[in-house]
Design a protein that fits this description.
single chain, alpha/beta, six-stranded antiparallel beta sheet
Amino acid sequence: MKYSVVAASIALIAFTSGALANPAAAQAVRKPFSWDNATVYFLLTDRFNNANPANDHAYGRRDDAAPARAYMGGDLAGITAKIRAGYFKDLGVDAIWITPPVEQIHAGTDEGTGKSYGFHGYWARDFTSVDANLGTEADVRELVDTAHANGLRVLLDVVMNHTGPVTADDPVWPADWVRTGPTCTYKDARTTIDCTLVANLPDFRTGSNAAVKLPPALAAKWKAEGRYERETKELDAFFKRTGYPRAPRYYLMKWHADWVRKYGFDGFRADTVKHTEPGVWKELKAVASAAYEDWKRANPAKRLGDDKFFMTAEVFNYSIAHGHKFDTGGGAMVDFYANGFDSLINFSMKSDAQQGYEALFGSYSAALNGPLSGHSVLNYMSSHDDSAPFDALRSRPFETANKLLLAPGAAQIYYGDETARLLHIDGAEGDANLRSFMNWDELAKNAQRTGYGVADVREHWAKLGQFRHAHLAVGAGVHQMIQHAPYVFKRTYDKNGVSDKVVVALGLPTDKRASIPVRGVFNDGQTVRDAYSGTSAVVAGGLVQFPAQNAVVLISY
């Protein structure tokens, strides 16, 4: 991934040798943004915060689903409210990833675990409309504008693989648009792509170049809403401008890019990537990038910088160890970085994190500064559909934060990781357990669990998150261990005229002051700061001691 900097109009004072020798000058340094070091907060909109109870039951939806499979009331306005309250800024978050806000199938359906609604956003009915359970177009605009005004980027979750399930209220799309079988068997590329993920989840014919007409049900819907002429006129203009055939995938690309052009989304998180032809994503990147440039030109006061449009991929079971080669079935190797993606979600982080700190950090740094140089991964410890999170019982929330937020690569916080939101709901089955409503009440009263309080956990995550946000070296730098026990390491970053250095100590004794080696990073006589305690100290003899006695120390100028 190309290194991204903030707008040229924003002055950057790099960490030059002169600035490093002058702590006062260092305080004036303004770090550029990089997706390589980003902390991305991933949330299910319906499960995060409810600001408008009036939209809780749109389209006649009811609370008649299996446990945790109905809509719970979270909405776009709820996210905006938390942005304004400084919740994400306090965590050091750089970007928010929201689940697809597009209109979902209206009815509930049994997917094998009881009746469920499309609260998660992956069962689209109309890619051009905002789901009324989540809000309105004005709510989308306000969310993105508010995020940008607060220095936050926003990623839009997009689905190119499938529609929503078929119900009596939600008809199947025409046969030239979707296939309804067979179910994927993953024996080779064809049985991974030309198939349905599960029964009753129609698969878009993304490999077809045959021209198709609008689905009759969608055309009728647009006419009833009074926007048929506008939508078809825009489609005509898109196909004329691009020269693309009127094949299913290009309709989808136009519809997804419209969200970027209208609202200014800064990137996509692409769903079920290995289940479409790899080249589809490279085409989507081109269409969305053009839309992003259009939005930036039309909204110079709202843009955060000169970043290019960003895309990260959910390639199920991709690991950082795969590098540029991923087997999509039967030995069909694909380099998704060469097909439009700047980043891939790293599914192995939650298992790799069972290792010690040095094994984890050292191997990730070697990969990102070696075979994957110029690209990045998005690490996570829990998610909306991973049944094997790092700490399923939430018994190690401090260690979880240390390993996720201090690991090389970008970091994905799944909503409630920072508040130890429980990943179990009585009576729920499968992934519904991972999708409980955000535990705001527990956070407010600092609910006590075995060995910790919820608010204390969030404070720890916030300290690490803010340190990461302030220092490119943490996620995008080169890692090197300084001392084995207590564990001390350094990260250094030196690219494009920007330099950054940090030292981190973990597992320090808390009953006495510890001497932390910093030789070769910070010089004797220099004053350095511990971001964890907020205290400062002077380096002497290659060592530094801070008055606070914490197990974690985060050192910088």
